[in-house]
Every structure is written in C-alpha cells, then in structure tokens.
Amino acid sequence: MAHTFEELVEMQRAADQAHAQVQQLRDQYGPPTRVAWSEQQTATYETAWRAWRDLARDVQAAVTEHAQAEGQSRTEVEAGVKKAARHPEPPEPQDE
Fold first, then answer.
1. Where is this region: Disordered (predicted)?
2. pLDDT (tens digit, 9 = 90+) per residue, 56-77?
C-alpha cells in the first residue's frame, strides 16, 4: 500500500533527524582518522548511522511507490516531500 504524502513527509523528517544525529556525533567525536574513537563511541556512531541509512532507504522506497501509485514523477514527489519536511508552510491564521 502506498503511503500518503503526509506520511512521506513524516518519514523524511525522521530520516533528517537521524542524519542530524549522525552529524552531531561526528562533530562531537571528531574525525575517526584523527582521533581514535572508543569502542562505545564507535558503536554509538554506527548505530546512529545504520538508523539514518535505514530510514533514508525506507523513505526513498516509499516515495517511489507513492509516485508510481499516483502516476507522478518520482523526482517531483521527492522534491515536494523534502520541501514540505524541511520548509513547512506556516499554519493559516484562525479567524476568531
């Protein structure tokens, strides 16, 4: 079953958050070629990296499935999902 556009946006946000965690750990630990990481640091980084990789793979597959189901260009769906996930529109003001 194809995911809705809103579900794709949430999946992309999760992948983006996982990527930010990987970048944060890399910044915190320093480059592994310059600074030897402890076993704990290596395990933590590899776990975060695997989570990011898996989430990114899942969102890519879901985007492809959604595009095929809707008869849309995969590239356009992916661009729309990333834009909505990373630059959400502000909510409409509520009339009182």
1. 63-96
2. 999 999 999 999 999 999 999 9
